[in-house]
Recover the amino acids of this structure.
């Protein structure tokens, strides 16, 4: 299986020796979008349908609404608000699925999917705005604390939308456990939501690293390589394989940087640096338009939007930006566990 992915429109993304996997990014510092949720997921409550129903009616309950691939926002004098009361949510249309996201302090938070048939009528309302979650993050139009629960809601509701039938016996399945499981009434199988691991990384040799461009990138955009981890593969193996497949560079040590939920539709970006052992670049043209080595001085110009040819790196909402920034600031020390 050979499958690479895109990180939004900007970042796309793609044997061996010793391994070092050490988190070097403060767990309390989440500059990348969608990470750092303040919600307590309160998983123990998921099986108590009566309590969840009472929570949904609580005056402190808040709902994040998803319609197809879009987030529904309320417009107000100061901007946009993604949090709806129970009555406001129900006034937007039929809530196809409701998922218990967790508690913000004591306040329950839910994600709810509106029927896609209501999208046109929602767009016609002057007090609402429908917009994709990537644009919300790039434009910074809601408070940053809302981005993690919005990502949680979008990912889990998207899973429901795509998993209505049992993969064992094809019968229609039913939501359970506050929306964190689907049960098959026919063969009794229980199905759990998926998160797909994607490795995203820089291959580094001394003061240089490899960036690539996909044909779908803006002409001046360069980013980290990336690709899905495959079944039966460790993160380190996936990093080495993707780099080798996409640009032909062999790598040894792999160090972990940080991770980022990426709900497009349900990925977890696992950021790494890798020690390159070879220099020649051989591009997989089915994946990449261009790839080459960049030194730290040139990377800094790109990151700071000062490159003489206008070359650029992804914006700060993406973990690729921070993987590159860490290398600019620390050089090959990023490979020291
Ligand atoms: Zn079944």
């Amino acid at each position: 299986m050979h499958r690479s992915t895109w990180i939004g429109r900007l970042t796309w993304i793609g044997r061996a020796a010793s391994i070092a996997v050490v988190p070097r990014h403060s767990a309390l510092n989440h500059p990348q979008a969608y990470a750092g949720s303040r919600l307590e997921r309160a998983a123990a409550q998921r099986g108590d349908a009566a309590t969840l129903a009472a929570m949904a009616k609580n005056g402190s309950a808040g709902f994040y609404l998803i319609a197809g691939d879009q987030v529904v926002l309320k417009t107000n004098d100061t901007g946009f608000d993604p949090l709806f009361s129970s009555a406001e949510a129900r006034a937007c249309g039929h809530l196809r699925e409701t998922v218990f996201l967790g508690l913000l302090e004591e306040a329950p938070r839910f994600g709810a999917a509106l029927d896609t048939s209501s999208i046109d009528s929602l767009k016609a309302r002057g007090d609402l705005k429908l917009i994709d979650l990537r644009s919300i993050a790039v434009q910074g139009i809601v408070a940053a604390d809302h981005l993690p629960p919005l990502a949680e809601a979008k990912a889990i509701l998207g899973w429901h939308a795509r998993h209505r039938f049992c993969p064992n016996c094809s019968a229609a399945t039913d939501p359970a456990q506050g929306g964190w499981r689907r049960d098959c009434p026919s063969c009794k199988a229980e199905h759990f939501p998926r998160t797909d691991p994607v490795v995203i990384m820089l291959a580094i040799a001394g003061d240089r690293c490899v960036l690539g461009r996909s044909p779908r990138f803006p002409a001046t955009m360069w980013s980290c390589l990336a690709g899905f981890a495959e079944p039966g593969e460790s993160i380190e193996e996936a990093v080495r394989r993707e780099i080798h497949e996409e640009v032909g560079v062999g790598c040894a040590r792999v160090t972990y940087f940080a991770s980022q939920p990426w709900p497009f539709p349900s990925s977890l970006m696992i950021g790494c640096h890798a020690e390159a052992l070879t220099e020649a670049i051989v591009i997989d043209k089915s994946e990449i338009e261009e790839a080459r080595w960049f030194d730290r001085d040139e990377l800094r110009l790109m990151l700071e939007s000062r490159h003489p040819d206008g070359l650029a790196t992804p914006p700060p909402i993406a973990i690729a930006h921070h993987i590159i920034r860490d290398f600019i600031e620390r050089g090959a020390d990023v490979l020291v566990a």
About this structure: Confidence is low (pLDDT under 50) at residues 1-28.
